[in-house]
Amino acid sequence: MKFALPRNSLGGKASALAAKRRRQGFTLAEVLAAMLFLAIVIPAAVEAMHLASLAGEVAARKGAAVRVADRILNESLVTTNWSNGTQSGTTSEGAMDFRWTLTSQSWPEDAALQTVTAEVKFSAQGKDYSVKLNTLVTQPGMTTVNLTKP
Q1: Which option is the CATH number for 25-138: 1.10.3210, 3.30.70, 3.40.720, 3.30.1300?
Q2: pTM surpassing 0.90?
């Protein structure tokens, strides 16, 4: 149940309330300033989200590429395939394809050692990236290695 007050009982308060209600809106300048602010902030936020997405994708693929390089390097060391010169191929991990190359070179500090390098290349959002893992191994048939300089 509602109770109504007579109009004249509010006196001057009614007109003051009505005037206050009219002043509570936004002016055209305030609305335009807010729209200008949003026009600047929204594209910047979208670009930041795009860069974060690219960085996340590259990081995920780089982690997978490191696992692939580690697996190729370990398999070649166990099977001694690293001494057969340069090898290359393509492997998949999940839905991603990786191109890999395995190379071996003489280590300049000691002729009995070889540097074996596994390089894995991958693409993320149209750009090419690569990861390299290296290790030192003794050449087949060599039994002793002196790692100290004379």
Answers
A1: 3.30.1300
A2: no
